[in-house]
Specification:
Layout lengths: L1 H28 L4 H33 L7 H44 L5 H48 L3 H43 L1
Length: about 220
Amino acid sequence: MKSFSTALIVCAAMLSSACSTVYYGTMEKVGIHKRDILVDRVEDTRDSQEEAQEQFKSALEKFGSVVKIEDSNLKSYYESLNDEYENSKEAAEEVSDRINAVEDVAEDLFDEWSDEIETFSNPEFKRSSKAQLRDTQSRYKTMLASMRKAESSMKPVLKTFHDNVLFLKHNLNAQAIGSLKSEFGALKSNIDQLINRMNQSIEQSDEFIAEMRKQSA
C-alpha cells in the first residue's frame, strides 16, 4: 500500500513537471520567459498581500464594532463577523498560494540559469553570469523570507479570530461579548504586527521587481 502511495506521488510530481515544461514552452514562444513569469508572480503576491491587509483591517473594524454592542440581537452580528473571518481566511490562502507559485518558478529559473552558465565557452561571460545569478538568488531569498514571515503572521490572527467567532456562535449572550472584549487588544496587536510585516514584504518585493527589470533593460 505504501509503495502504491509513493508511486502516486511520483506520478503526480512527473505530471506537474510535464505541465510546467509545456507551460514554459508555450510562454517562451510568445516571448515570455521564466524571468518575466517570476516578476509577474511576485507582483501578484504583492497585490494579494495588499488586499489581505485591507481585509484584515476590515475584520478588525468589524470585531471592534461587535465588542461595543449592548443589544441582544447577536445572531446578525455573529453572521457578519463570521463573514469577515471567512473572507480573511480566503485572503490568507490566496497569499500562500501566490508565494508557492513564486517559489515554483524561481526554482525552475535558477536551475535553468545554472545549467546555461555551464554552456559558456567564454570564461569572462561565465564569471559574470555566475555573479549575477548569486546576486539575484540572494535578493530572492531575502524577499521570500520576508513573504514567509508575513504569511506566518496571519496564522495567529486567524486562529484567534476563529476561536472568538465560534465562541460567539455557541454563546449568543452578554458573556460572549465580554470574552470578545478581553481578546480585542491581543487581536489588534497581532493584526498590527501582520500589517507591518506585510509592508516590509511588499517593500522587498518592489525592490526585487525593480532589480529584475533593471537586469532585463
